[in-house]
Each structure stands twice: as structure tokens, then as C-alpha cells.
């Protein structure tokens, strides 16, 4: 009985595994649906297919018809029914649902049925679009499946800064289009800043006559040099008719537009057009003026501007900025000083609060809600304000605890003006690199919040600031594929996160990007890692998921370029290794001359195994914690540890009090039971220092996604000394310190190899 039962379990497990592999192979929907079950067979979408709709879903049916015509040349027909016949090829049903934006989809060989309420049917259509093949010549087969889906968060956003570099209406529409394809529903339009005013305001025409042409005036020497831009900027603005056109376009795709009119800082373009807005300096000093003076003229001016903005935008929120205000300027302003005295304000931060609260009262009088960056917390938060937390999570956590709604947009995870890989190999950007993995692993509802407080988190948003982004192709490169990670982390259930699955699905989106002529950054070649090895030959197969891609590579440390000889994937590298190799790759694909560069160092070392007796060892590692102000671990000297213990691969967080840090030292052995090639890596996002037989095999302080590293070692049976150290903080909370596996195989369980 035992053998029969065991065999049945093996068969069941094998069947489930094969089913999971099949589902992953056929269904690449981003964001991951709540429930997806594979069916049998496929539905073939033909040229004469009928899209059956009711009155409510007719616009979505026309959207799908236009999409199929534009991208595949299909001439489908939309027909309106009171009750859609069951034999109709594609049925879009409007049905009431408790869950906002929920939908169900059933695909069988005879038809496709999508049902939902509100935006739900539209989101079902987006899932259908992702199931279509991207090869126009192939039959349009859709694998049979059943999907039940709904979003986790109501705010799934992306911003676009058009102040630093202006983007045309068509470019903005394409940005919204791709957002909608991935069920992102909030478009944060950053319309004003120091570098340009981009929205027509009838009452104050100089805002666009002058404020929208700052690069023109800069070239004439009539305005400051735009020294934070990579060029002279792009002038331009949107007329009210153009804005209405974009709003309608977004509404048809169930995208809400959040306009931002920046105040009281970041207002240099407005001040350039109307100097009386600027903060005056009683000392007579001449300097850049980016702060609005808190005068009655300013408040009347901004209320007039906001009145015209409100008349254009139908959504409930208006973003007023509030970030990076140079509040010290107010201390020299006669207007601000008089205001402080009159209103009994004790600091410039309270002037900021007064300013924001006054604007809030005006917005509330027009049935609008105020959104601001987390600096609006300073000096006292406006009563009904929604906070966008960008300076990390602290502002958002504080606001949620005060029962204010919050959108999480924190540095570094949600800032897409940062490079996506090693900054030496990427276009110039602000801040250290942010990879798609870092975005995907972010959790908007902090553990520091109670369940009740977490309910105030509306969702999350990716931000892009365009000082270094001069055109639409560059914009698309910077935002995607990272925006796909925002889509999934804001839509899919928290407990369904799976970075490996997402990585596979992400690579399958490039067929769609090509279909849409959309310049997303190419995926990296897997395996181009910094390697420490004791082997005499270096072997690596360079493979790539995109058909038609080619690679130029070198092993001499010199980066190839577009003029170097190219070869198709896969590429087998098998060379002698005496000391070190500098691997460099230059990968190209067929769309818009896209390319990415990667580099890695491969270094040979000697590893000798120790001669400890197994009988004297027990499982797990020993650790010591040192609470100190010393940031250089080599200078700890003879300090005594504040804590000692034993640990598995999951390392507990050891947060030190302010002013102190916690260094953790680990010491133990790795037991190898069978001679083979092994791969040793770390699961830490910020890598520890790891030593095997006193040889450094993992360098400390590197981001594992930006500079991946591993030790590839041929180890004989025996015991190997293991040691290391790292700075303990929240960055690596609940992450695995060491991962060991047989090369090309599964990870090994630590209880079988970790000793001390």
C-alpha cells in the first residue's frame, strides 16, 4: 500500500507540475490574474468575427475592433444586442458586481466571453489582447482558459513630467495607451515646474506666452541657463482643446488624469512670466526665485488658475505639489514675515502649512480634493489632504496613522529617472540604479501599519522626472519594463507575488512592444554575473528570449559597440581561465536599433577544504552582533558583541538605535557530501561579505540585481570554513543570507550543509 500510495502521489505531483508549466508557457498576462485556469483547445479569431456588445459595453467593443484593425488588419464587426447571442464570437457583457473593476473571462474553442461592470470589461479585453499572438502572419489563436480577476488597489499610477521636456499630445496618448494595456488607471500629469508651464490659462496668457518658452528665452540670455537639463529643453504647451482631447482619450481607456499645478516652490516658470508672484527679499539680494510669495495677489492668482484647471479636469483630485519648497526665502520676505506675525505662525514650516490649507479650502469649495507630496505634512497637514509619499515611506506611514489617504511613490523603488542597471552602462539618470526586481518586490502597505491604518493606502505609483529624458523613445526606455512591475504589485494579490514568474512573463511582452513600436528597455542576458571560481576553464552559454536578437561580446575587458561583429544567440563560451576575464556584451534587437550593454568579471581563486571533524559540528551558523558607531568593520578591534546566537539562512533584522549601526559577523562551515560543481550566491538585496576558506567569494555592499555575483566552485567531499559579515538593517529583512545549489540544479536545504 505504501508503494502504491507513494507512486500515486508522484503521478499527481507530476501532473500538477506539468499543468503549471503549461499555464506559465501559454499565459503571459501582466498583471497576474487572481485566478487563471487552463482549458482545452484554442479559439481562433477570424477576419469576419462579430464582437457582440450591449449598450454599456459598445465603446469597449469599438475599442477592441479598432485595436484588431490597427495591429492585425482584421475587419471585425461590432453589433449591439439587448441579449448577446451565445454563438457570437466575442461577447462583452456588462454585469453588476460588488468588486470594482472585476471581470471574468471564458475562452473556449467556440467563443470568448468577457463579463464585468464599469472598467471590468475593458480590463478583460486587455487580458485578451495579451493572449493574442504578436506575429501578424500567424493564425490568431487564443488558448482556452477561465479567468476571474479584480484589482488589489484602486490607485495604480504612473506620472509624466512634461515641464522639463515637453511631450506632444500624440506622445502623451501613446503613454496612456500602454498604461491602459496593463490596467494602470491613474495618469499623474506634472504640468508646471521651474522649467516650463504647459497648460493654457486664459486669464494669465503670459504663463504660456513666456513660461512655456523658457528654453527659447534661455538661449537669448533672458533667463537662467537650464543647467539641470541634458540639452536646452523642449518648449511647448497644451491648449485647452488639446487637454480636453487627452482627457476624453484617457476616459475611453478608463484612465483618470491627475493634474499637478506646482506650488509654493518649483514655480520659477510662473514667476518668470509674472514676477510679482515671486518671493521678495528685503535684504536686496539677487538670486533665483522659485518660491511664491504668500501674498493676496498670489492666492488670487492661484485660485484663478485652479478655477480654469478644475473646469477642464473632471476627476476628484488636484495635485498642488508642495515639495522641496525653499521655505527659508520666506524669512526674508516682508509679506511672509507680516503673515507670520498676523497669523501667529512660529516658523516657515507653518507658513507652508498655512499656504497649503488655504489652497485646500478653495479646492473643497469647488468639490475637489487636494493631493500633495509628503512635505505638506510639515507644519501641520491639511484636514482632507491625500499624501504622496516620495521621500521614502515615513511620510506615508505618518499620514496613514493620522487617517489620511496615501499613495506610495517612495525613493528609490518608484523613481524611474534612475538607471535600470549599472549606471556606467545606462543613460544618465538621477540616483543609484533601480531594477525591475526592486520595483516588483516593493510592498505599499508597510508592516509598521496596523490593518486599519493600512486601509488608508490607496495604492502606488511610478514616477518619472524628465531633466535627462529629451524625447519619447528615451521616456519609454526609462519607464518600461519597470511600469509592468507597478502594474502587478498594485493589481495582483500580495500573496501571489512571484518574481521568477513575473520575469518570464515580462520577457514575453516584447512581442507586444514591437507590435506597438514601443521602445521598452531590453531584458538583460541571464548569467552575465561576476564570478569567483576555482575552475581552470570558464564556460557560459549566452541565450536570449527575443527572436532576432544578436550579441557582440568580448573577453578582454573592452566593450564592443554597434560596429563590432555580431552573432546570433545562443553563444557558447568555453575558454581557459588562468587569472581573470573581463566579459563585455552589447546586445541588439530588431526594434529601433535598441541595445543594452552588460559587463562581468570572472576571477580564478584557490579553495582548500578544512579538516574539522563532522562529529564536533552541529547544524546552522553562529553569529555575533556588534552595536557600534563604527562604519568600518575592520576597525571594530576587540569590541565585545552585544548579542550572540545561532541562525539559519533567514537572518533576523537587527535595527540599531539612531546614531548606531549593527554589524553582524557569521562563522561556520559548509559540509559537502558529494564532489561536484556548486554555485554559491546570496539572497540579500545588498550583498554581505562572504568568505570560503578565507577566500572572498561574495563582495559586500553590492545590489544583487545591479551587479549580480556568484561563486562557481568545484568542491570535493569535506568541510569548508565559512565566514562573513554585513550591516544589519531593514534592507535585507527576511532575506536568505546564503544560497547553495549543485550547478544547474535545485537549491540545497541548509540543514544538510550548514554547520558550526
Write the layout of secondary structure elements.
Elements: H1 2-26, E1 35-45, E2 50-53, H2 58-72, E3 77-80, E4 90-94, E5 103-107, E6 112-116, H3 120-131, E7 140-149, E8 155-161, H4 169-181, E9 186-190, E10 192-193, E11 196-197, H5 206-209, H6 214-219, H7 240-251, E12 256-263, H8 268-273, H9 296-312, E13 317-321, H10 334-343, H11 348-365, E14 369-373, E15 386-389, H12 394-401, E16 406-408, H13 436-440, H14 451-454, E17 457-462, H15 472-479, H16 482-491, H17 499-507, H18 510-515, E18 530-533, E19 537-542, E20 550-554, E21 567-568, E22 571-576, E23 580-588, E24 595-604, E25 621-628, E26 643-647, E27 661-672, E28 676-681, E29 689-692, E30 695-698, E31 709-715, E32 718-728, E33 739-742, H19 750-753, E34 754-755
Parallel strand pairs: 2-3, 2-4, 4-6, 8-9, 8-17, 9-12, 12-13, 13-14, 14-15, 15-16, 16-17, 18-24, 18-31
Antiparallel strand pairs: 1-7, 5-6, 5-7, 10-11, 19-22, 20-21, 20-23, 23-24, 25-26, 25-27, 27-32, 27-34, 28-31, 28-33, 29-30, 29-32
Helix pairs in contact: 4-7, 9-11
Amino acid at each position: 500500500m505504501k508503494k502504491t500510495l507513494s507512486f500515486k502521489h508522484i503521478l499527481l505531483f507530476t501532473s500538477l507540475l506539468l499543468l503549471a508549466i503549461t499555464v506559465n508557457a501559454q499565459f503571459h498576462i501582466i498583471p497576474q490574474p487572481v485566478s487563471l485556469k487552463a482549458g482545452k483547445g484554442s479559439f481562433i479569431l477570424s477576419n469576419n468575427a462579430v464582437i457582440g456588445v450591449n449598450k454599456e459595453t459598445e465603446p469597449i467593443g469599438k475599442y477592441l475592433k479598432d485595436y484588431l484593425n490597427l495591429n492585425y488588419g482584421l475587419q471585425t464587426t461590432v453589433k449591439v444586442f439587448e441579449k448577446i447571442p451565445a454563438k457570437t464570437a466575442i461577447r462583452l457583457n456588462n454585469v453588476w458586481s460588488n468588486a470594482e473593476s472585476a471581470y471574468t473571462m471564458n475562452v473556449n474553442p467556440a467563443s470568448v466571453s468577457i463579463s464585468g461592470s464599469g472598467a471590468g470589461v475593458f480590463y478583460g479585453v486587455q487580458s485578451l489582447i495579451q493572449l493574442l499572438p504578436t506575429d501578424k502572419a500567424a493564425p490568431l489563436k487564443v488558448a482556452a482558459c477561465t479567468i476571474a480577476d479584480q484589482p488589489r488597489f484602486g490607485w495604480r499610477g504612473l506620472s509624466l513630467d512634461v515641464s522639463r521636456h515637453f511631450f506632444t499630445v500624440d506622445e502623451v496618448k501613446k503613454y496612456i495607451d500602454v498604461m491602459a494595456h496593463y490596467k494602470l488607471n491613474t495618469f499623474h500629469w506634472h504640468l508646471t515646474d521651474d522649467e516650463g508651464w504647459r497648460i493654457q490659462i486664459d486669464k494669465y496668457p503670459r504663463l504660456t506666452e513666456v513660461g512655456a518658452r523658457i528654453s527659447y528665452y534661455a538661449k537669448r540670455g533672458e533667463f537662467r541657463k537650464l543647467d539641470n537639463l541634458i540639452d536646452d529643453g523642449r518648449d511647448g504647451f497644451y491648449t485647452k482643446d488639446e487637454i480636453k482631447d487627452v482627457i476624453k482619450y484617457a476616459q475611453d481607456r478608463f484612465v483618470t488624469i491627475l493634474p499637478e499645478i506646482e506650488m509654493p516652490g518649483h514655480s520659477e516658470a510662473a514667476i518668470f512670466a509674472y514676477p510679482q508672484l515671486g518671493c521678495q527679499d528685503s535684504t536686496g539680494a539677487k538670486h533665483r526665485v522659485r518660491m511664491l510669495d504668500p501674498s493676496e495677489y498670489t492666492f488670487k492668482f492661484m485660485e484663478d488658475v485652479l478655477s480654469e484647471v478644475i473646469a477642464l479636469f473632471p476627476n476628484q483630485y488636484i495635485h498642488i505639489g508642495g515639495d522641496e519648497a525653499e521655505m527659508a526665502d520666506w524669512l526674508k520676505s516682508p509679506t511672509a514675515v507680516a503673515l507670520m506675525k498676523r497669523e501667529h505662525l512660529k516658523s516657515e514650516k507653518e507658513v507652508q502649512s498655512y499656504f497649503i490649507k488655504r489652497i485646500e479650502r478653495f479646492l473643497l469649495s469647488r468639490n475637489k480634493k487636494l493631493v500633495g507630496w509628503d512635505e505638506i505634512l510639515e507644519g501641520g497637514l491639511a484636514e482632507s489632504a491625500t499624501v504622496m509619499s516620495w521621500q521614502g515611506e515615513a511620510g506615508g506611514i505618518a499620514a496613514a496613522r493620522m487617517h489620511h489617504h496615501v499613495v506610495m511613490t517612495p525613493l528609490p523603488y518608484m523613481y524611474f529617472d534612475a538607471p535600470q542597471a549599472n549606471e556606467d552602462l545606462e543613460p544618465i539618470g538621477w540616483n543609484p540604479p533601480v531594477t525591475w526586481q526592486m520595483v516588483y518586490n516593493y510592498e505599499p502597505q508597510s508592516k509598521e501599519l496596523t490593518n486599519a491604518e493600512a486601509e488608508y493606502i490607496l495604492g502606488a505609483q511610478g514616477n518619472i522626472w524628465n531633466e535627462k529624458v529629451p524625447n519619447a523613445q528615451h521616456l519609454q526606455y526609462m519607464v518600461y519594463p519597470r511600469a509592468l512591475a507597478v502594474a502587478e504589485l498594485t493589481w495582483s494579490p500580495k500573496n501571489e507575488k512571484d518574481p521568477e514568474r513575473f520575469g518570464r512573463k515580462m520577457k514575453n511582452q516584447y512581442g507586444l512592444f514591437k507590435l506597438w513600436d514601443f521602445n521598452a528597455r531590453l531584458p538583460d542576458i541571464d548569467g552575465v554575473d561576476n564570478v569567483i571560481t576555482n575552475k581552470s576553464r570558464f564556460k557560459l552559454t549566452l541565450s536570449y528570449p527575443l527572436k532576432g536578437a544578436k550579441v557582440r561580446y568580448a573577453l578582454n575587458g573592452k566593450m564592443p559597440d554597434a560596429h563590432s561583429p555580431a552573432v546570433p544567440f545562443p553563444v557558447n563560451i568555453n575558454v581557459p581561465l588562468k587569472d581573470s576575464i573581463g566579459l563585455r556584451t552589447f546586445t541588439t534587437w530588431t526594434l529601433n536599433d535598441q541595445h543594452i550593454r552588460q559587463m562581468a568579471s570572472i576571477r580564478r581563486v584557490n579553495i582548500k577544504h578544512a579538516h574539522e571533524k563532522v562529529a564536533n559540528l552541529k547544524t546552522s551558523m553562529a553569529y555575533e552582533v556588534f552595536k557600534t558607531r563604527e562604519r568600518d568593520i575592520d576597525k571594530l578591534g576587540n569590541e565585545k558583541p552585544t548579542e550572540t546566537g545561532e541562525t539559519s539562512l533567514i537572518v533576523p533584522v537587527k535595527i540599531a538605535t539612531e546614531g548606531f549601526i549593527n554589524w553582524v559577523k557569521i562563522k561556520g562551515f559548509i559540509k559537502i557530501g558529494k564532489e561536484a560543481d556548486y554555485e554559491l550566491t546570496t539572497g540579500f538585496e545588498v550583498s554581505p561579505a562572504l568568505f570560503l576558506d578565507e577566500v572572498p567569494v561574495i563582495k559586500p555592499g553590492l545590489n544583487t540585481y545591479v551587479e549580480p555575483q556568484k561563486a562557481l566552485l568545484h568542491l570535493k567531499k569535506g568541510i569548508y570554513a565559512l565566514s562573513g559579515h554585513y550591516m544589519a538593517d531593514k534592507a535585507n529583512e527576511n532575506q536568505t543570507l546564503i544560497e547553495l545549489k549543485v550547478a544547474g540544479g535545485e537549491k540545497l536545504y541548509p540543514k544538510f550543509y550548514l554547520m558550526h
